[in-house]
Structure formats: C-alpha cells, structure tokens
Amino acid sequence: MDIFLQQIINGLVQGSIYALVALGYTMVYGIMGLINFAHGEVVMIGTLVTITVAGSLIKAGMPVAVAGFAGLMAAVLVCMALGWALERVAYRPLRNAPRLTPLITAIGMSIVLQNLAMMIWGRNYLTFPALLPKMDFEFAGANFTMIQIIIVLVSAATMGGLLLLVYRTKLGMAMRATAQNPAVASLMGVNINRVIAAAFVIGSALGAVAGVMVGTYYEIAHYQMGFMLGLKAFTAAVLGGIGNLAGAMLGGILLGIIEALGAGYIGDLTGGFLGSHYQDIFAFVVLIVVLMFKPSGLFGEKTGDRA
Amino acid sequence: MNFGRFFRSTVGIGLTAAILLALPFVAATGGQAWVRILDFAILYVFLALGLNIVVGLAGLLDLGYIAFYAVGAYTWALLASPHFGLHWPIWAILPLGAGLACFAGVLLGSPTLKLRGDYLAIVTLGFGEIVRIFLNNLNAPINVTNGPQGITLIDPVSFGAFKFSGTTQIFGFALSGPQKYYFLLVALAILVIIINIRLQNSRIGRAWQAIREDEIAAKAIGINTRNLKLLAFAMGASFGGVAGGIFSAMQGFVSPESFSLLESIMILAMVVLGGMGHIPGVILGAVLLTVLPEVLRYGVGPLQMAMFGKMLVDPESLRMLVFGLALVLVMRFKPAGLWPSPERQRELKETGK
Amino acid sequence: MQAKLSVVALSVAAAFALSACGQKEEPKPAAAPVPAAKPELVVKLGHVAPMTGPQAHLGKDNENGAVLAIEELNAKGMEIGGAKVKFELINEDDQADPKQGSIVAQKLVDAKVNGVIGHLNSGTTIPASKLYADAGIPQISGSATNPKYTQQGFATAFRVMANDVQQGKSLGEFAVKQGVKTVAIVDDRTAYGQGLADEFRKAAEASGIKVVASEYTTDKATDFKAILTKIKSTKAELVFFGGMDAQGGPMAKQMKELGIKAKFLGGDGICTPEFMKLGGPATEGQFCSLPGMPLEKLAKGPEFREKFTKKFNAEIQLYAPYVYDAVMVMADSMKRADSVDPAKFLPAIGKTKYDGVTAMIEFDAVGDLKGGAISIYQYKGGKLEYVETLGGSTLEAVKADIKADVKEAVADVKDAAKAVAGAATAVGKEAVGDVKDAAKAATEAGKDAVKAGAEAVKNAADATKAAVEKK
Predict the structure, then answer these.
(1) C222/A280 CB distance under 8 A
(2) From CA C176, how far away is CA B206, in angstroms rounded?
(3) What is the pLDDT of residues B150-191, one digit of tens each?
(4) Of B352, C42, C309, C322, which has the highest C-beta tally within 10 A?
C-alpha cells in the first residue's frame, strides 16, 4: 500500500508539472485555436534564465531566497517578452492563413529557440541552483519533499487564478468573446490583437513559472528539455479537452498518474510481457481510447471542423 | 489540346528526363556523397508524396507518418538479413512491406475517423511513437526486432545477380552504388508521381478534396467519407512502406532511432512548405529540405571565414538555426507554401490575404 | 493532362537543378594524394562525432582528443616513405543519427581520407563501417562499444576500447565481489545502455545474483520516480544502470529522495564529471566503470590530462584519451608500414602494439582491443576514486601491462619483470586471476625500482612466487 501511495504521489507531482505547462497550451488554443508548439521552448528558456540570474546572484553573495525570487521574476519577464514577440512576429501575420501554416511556423520557432538557447547556454546539462531548503517528509511509508508539495500547490493556484481571470475580469470576458467569434467581438469593441497578445503573454508567464518549478524539482536543465515536456503537456491538454482550463489541469494530473501507475504495475499485470519500457505508450493509448469515445477530450466542448 | 501545348509538354518531359539522367553523374563530380544526398532527397520526395495524399488531398493532419516508413523498413530488414537468416527477393518483400504498412494505415485510420484537426494530429503523433517504442522494445521476451541494437548486414536491393551495392560496369559506364539506387528511386518516384496525378483528377481524388474542404457537405452529397478516409490512410501508408524498404536496403542497417517524431515533422514540413496538395510544390519542398541543410553545412563555415576571417558561430548550430528560420519566413511570406496549387492561390486571394 | 504532366516535369527539373546548384557551394575536395614529388605528404584523417544534439558535449570532447593528437604528430614531424607527413583532420557531424552517419561517411570516402577516427555512437558507427569497409578505409573508433561493430566481419573496423560485453561482464564480476545478492537493472533503451545491461545481467545471473527488477527508461527522461518506487518495493541491494550521465545523475538523486538505500552502479556513461554535477551529494559512494586503467594509474595519464586541460581549457569529458590513442595508432601503423596508402597500412593496424595513453593497444582477430581491462571507480568526496581493475585480461595483456609500466625502469628490473611474466605464463590459463595479482604486484614493484634499484627485483619475484604457490 505504501508503494501504491508513493506511486500516486509520484504521478500527482509529475502530473502537476504537465498541467502547469498544459495550461499554457490550452490558454492560447482556447482563444485562437492555435497549437503553440514552441511553448515547451518557452518553458526551457524560463528555466535557463533562472539558472543564469539566480546562479550569478547567489554567487555574488545574495541570500538564496532573494536570488531565487529575482530569478523567477527575470524568467517571467523574459518569457513574457518572448511570448509577445512570438505572437507579434510569427503568428499574427498568419491569422488567416491555412490551418497547417502556423503549425509549421511553431515547429520552426521551436527549432530556432532551441538552437539559440544552445548558443547562449551551451550544449551541456546545467545544474539548477538549490533555491528551496531541502525538507523530506514521510507519510505512511511514502516519501515526499517540500518542493513536491509546492509544485502541486502552485499549479492548483495557477489554475484557480486563470479561472478567475477568464470568468471574473473584463479581459477574461474579452477573451471568451474572441474565442467565440473574433469578428463579432471586434465589432463589440474588443481589441482582438491586444486580447490575443495578452493570452500569449500570460501563457508564457505561466511557462516561466513551470520552468522554474521543473528546474527546482529535477535540478537539471538542458536546451532540449522543452520538447518532450511540451509534447506530454500537449497530450495532457488534448486529453482533458483542449481549450478548457480545468480540463488541462485534470488531463495533466491524470496523465502523470497513469504513467506512474503504468510503469509501476504493468509488468506484474502482464506477467512481465509489458514493462516500464512502454511507459511512454500508456499516455497515448489512454488518449486514443478516450478520444474514440469522446472525440473532443474528457471535458472539451464540441468543436467545429477547424482542419 | 492544341499542338503548341503538346509540343511544350513533350519538350518539358524530354528536358526533365535528360536532366534526371545526367544529374547523378554531375553530382558525382562533387563526390559520391552528393549522389547519396540526392538519393535521400528522392526518397523524401517519395515519402512526401505519400503523405501528400493524406494531408494534402484528404486534409487529414498526420503527424505519425514515419510509422509506416518504419514498418516498411523493418519488413525488409527482417526478411532480408542474417537476423532470421532469411533472404527473400525484392519482389516478395516490397509488396509485403507495402501491404503491412497499408494494414497499419487502416489500423490507425479506423479509430480516428471521428477525430478532426488537432485531435487527429495528436493521435497520429501518438501512433507514430507507439510504433517506434514497440520496435525499440520487441527484443524480449521473443527477439523480433533486436531492440535498440537494430539490424545489421541487411541485403541490398538486387534483381537476380545484379546487386545495387558496389560499383558495376554497364555499357562502359562505371555506376556506383548510390548512382544505381538513384535510378531505382527515380523510377519509383515517377511511378508515385503518376499515381498521384491520376488520383488527384479521379473521382476518388475529387471526393478527398471535397472532404478536405467540408466534410459535412461531402457526406451530404453522398460521399462515403469513412471508406475514403481509410483509403487515404492506406494509400499514403503503402507509399511509406515502399520507401522504408528501399531505405533499409540502401543503409544496410536499421534501428528505431531513425524513426523518431522529428522525422514525421520533417516530412510534414516538406509537404506544407512546398505547397499542400500540389504535386510540384511537394516535390520542391522535399528536395529543398533535404538539400538545404547539406548546403548550409558546407556554406556556413567557409562563408564566415571569408567574411570575418574567423569562426564566430559554430557552423553546426547555425545550420539548424537557419533551417528553423527558413521555415518561419517561408510560412510568413508564402503561407500556402512556396509553390501552391493555383486553386489554393485563388482561395487565398479571395479571402483578401 | 499533358500540360499537368509537363508542370510536374518542370518542377522536378527545377527542384533538381536547385539541388545541383547547392552543390556548387561545396568546396571541391582537394585532389587526394599529393604528388610524391612534393616534400610534404598530406594525410587526411576523418573524425566523426555528433557536434549537435544532446551528446554534443561528448562529440566536442572527442574532437579535442583528435585535435591534440594531430597537433602533436605535426609538431613532432613524421617521415613516411621518405616524405615529411602533415596530418589533417576533417571533422564531420553525424548528429548521432544513423542516416546522417552514412552521408558523412560517404563524404569522407569521397574525400579519399587515409583513415577514419570515430564515430562516437555505435548507432552511427555500425552503418558507416560498411561504407568504409567497401572503400577499404581503416576505421578506429575510440568510443563505439557495441560488440556488433567489429562482429560484422569487416577487416577495416577497429576499436581501442573494451566493448560492452567485456564491460558488462566485469561489472557483473564486481557486483559479485561486493557480496550483492539481489540487483535491480535499469536501462535507457539505447543500443549502448541495453547492450551493457544485458551483459551485466548475464554475468550477474551466472554467478547466482538474483535480478529482482528489470526496469526501463529513455535517454530523454528526467523523472524516474515511478520505476524507482517499484525497485524500492523489491528491496534490491544494488541498482545497475545502463545509460548515460544525464539520466544517471538525476536517477541517483531521486533514489535518495525516495529513501532507497541500495548502491548505484553503472558503466562508462556515468563515469563523468557531469554525473557528479547532476547527481550532487547523491553520487557519494556510488560506483561506475571505465574501460582501461585510470589516467592517474597510467604512465602517460597525468601528462595527457595536463596537456588537454591546458590546451582546451576544459576537463576531459569521457573518450578524449581514447580518440587521441586512436589517432596515434593510425599514425603508428602508417609509420610501420612506411606508407599512407590504406591498402598498405591496413594490415599493419592489425599488428599494432602501441603503448598508448589508455592502454597497451593490441587488436584481436576481429579488431577488438585485446585484454580490454575494466576499472571500477567510486565517487568519494566529490571525486572519482579508483577501486580496482577487473576482468577480460589475457596473459598477453598482463605481460603488456608489465612491459608498459616498467619500460622506464633500469635494465635489470626490466629483465626481472620479464622473468616474472615468464613465471606467470607458466601458471597457465586457469590462473589468470592470480597471475594478474602477481603481475600487479610486480608492476608496483617495478615502479618503485626506478628509485630503489635492484632490490625491487626480489620483491617482484617473491610476489610472483607467492601467487604461484597460492594457486
């Protein structure tokens, strides 16, 4: 039982990370129906900026808490600027282009950002400075750490904040209007360009937060770390029904737990025929099964044909 | 059909044939490596045209196309290598590989019939990964694919005693291995191009395009969308299977790392960059994306030396950077691709963009 | 229809014309062998490793090793066939991608290189080796450890490093020696990781160790908690990891977070500074192995490290000394054959007996390194500490070891060492282990002898006798 509990904790934390990244995908998708493939790279840049800023401040003798906060702020600012620039330069001109065009642009941007990061931060794996005091807990035979609790709390709080933003503020209303029908929204006096830019900036800020969380948790970073993470998070977003904030959160956590339990138990269940080498498959198999019965994800609204 | 047009197209075909014939020999003066790059370029033309049926004609966004290529490659590798001690002839393996890939296509197609757009993209992506992961892990409990170690010493293509590897003398010409593969690939590519053109203008092709433009309307006018979508997947997949078989034979070695997601994305980029659904565009896209990185590999380093007298940026990192930028810029300024089909261009003009 | 066809035809033509244009930008490979009339003979060596992608840091390290060797060779000035030789390195990036590997291999074949050093990964080395074999170009890899590389039957394929079979076996022996009863095996599903883990499993099971869990991850993963939790439930005493430092480091850390007390053991992939950097304090006390002997224990090791760090202002990552040796072996074979023509010096490579930085290099029939000793290290206080050298050693290698180490000793010590080796040979193959101990003692003694003189001879002889008697 303690092992089962431990696996649930593992999955919950991993899932919260997926969820945090997935929120960024879903935020952008919900408003303009665009898969921002480069979102994983934004997360990566967030992590690497934090390493540089926090690392050099700690070296300069600043207290870890201050340096960590400064690192986080720097990452958020850089990523917001990056998100804004991405939207302005790469995506806005393509708003009326054929469906696949922005997707290819996003892939191109993803390659560009990865290689830029490699030029700036080098090819080696970097260590993330320890920003939080190490605290280990034990509960019913399962081990967990301070940072794991923080990750779960932060992603829950982020989702809560986003829901408030979307449903309780004027900007949120404008966002929902744009998502419904951009043309009509603009007739109603909504500045679509500003709303979409805001979605990108907010999504990227979330990416920066996710990047700092990932960095603090695993304590390593690399210029290619964003790709797999982005892919998993995207899967999570689709699983939950892309465009739906709560769906992204639940999809992420579900995916994390499925992976952990799958890796932990599939070997015993199949008599050793399948093992943890199929860990990456579980996510996709569940996704396919869910989509077969609910073609727009667990919590997604029915979307029109956008292809 | 007037005489002028007929004359022009005849000359066009003749000219193309002459260039295609001469190309491997011209390229060989720069080294056999360039012939090999040409081989890969044509292989990708082949793949991109296969994917074009699915994405370009039927409008089904497929991010897992590499899976079919993998199925074809492994079919060849398993049936013509010392791994199982089998050495089947080409006329048995290639159709079988195409058939298996076709089956895989239907397998992927059937659960995804209801899905649209981005949902379809992520599911096909997942399917590609599933195939790769299985290939990587099927070495236990029964060793089928030899896992990550891959399969070595795969037989080259051969017709009877005529082998495609190594140099042979034909009519006084010395033909190297890559040059022979070049001609084989060109022959296959021409076949695929003809099939593509015939399909595009056939009843099936028009039905696909109707589905692409508006699935509900297509259904309403009596098109069997389910069967046609499956057919698109199956046809695209079979081309992938054939290409995979040739790849396997040409390389003499396959391992699962050749079939990563990035390859799927690359092929999709070729189709979209060139001009979706437009055969010349797709060919252009495939050739550009295979050759461009190689050109950059040679061009970037010496260019920097000439301009600044020293290496400012590592040419290898710059190469990928330029490649990424090229994707972004082409999409920015020619959103329908470098060489879009005339209809597509008209549509874009009408919407004012 | 016709018109349509012609459009297609033209597009094909245009596309290919474009590709042909691309070709013009390529600098024409210099006409291969420079006429013998010139006093300087240019020898081109190809070097291939991934310079982009996740393994780029290892690729750069390899390249540095090769650059160092080439510069030294050129500074020394070598004469072959009466002409002064200038070595030139042609670097290629295979992106660790097999397809790219065969393209750059073809490129090197076209450039008519005299020999190839590399590739780094087995996955690219194997397909490329066929091209080199067809062209008759000798290839020496300093890091491709997959046994398949040399087992394909190509006369041109060599490596100066113990292969995965040798390494996995030695690691298994080490686990037995540690008195481990149960072990969990994790591999990263790459050709390297899976090969190593399989050999380890065989060796461990053969000596009665119980494999209680077989888990898998990927070479891109960062989270291992799920599989580690499973391993925790099996209470394995040792976790063996077949994979690289980028996963090994975080894995060791996450083991600690989950409260797993088992020791961590891995191959050369985790015997790097990166492993320690990424694993932090969790790497303390963990074990890893490297082919050959530690640089510090080798006569030329410390000198090499100093040269390397001074030149590149970087730490040796992993394979640089092996790549350095690979270049040297290539040059040495050319010198012995007195020719830079691959057809002529290829047979000489097989007969190599070169006293390199990493080992006394000799090849067996298929081109694998003879002997192929494996050393085990432990991370202690932020440093890699040498534990012992194990496995694979044949009598010849023992002799070679002795010869390599005692070379600089005074003449009579050398004779004594030979006598020791002679005595060792007499014990026969069954006593390989004991002989090795004896030889080691003799070697140590030999080293002392440089200072202490002839006295050491007795010690060495005694040590051997003791060992023989023990047997």
Answers:
(1) no
(2) 69
(3) 888 888 888 877 777 777 777 667 777 788 889 899 999 999
(4) C322
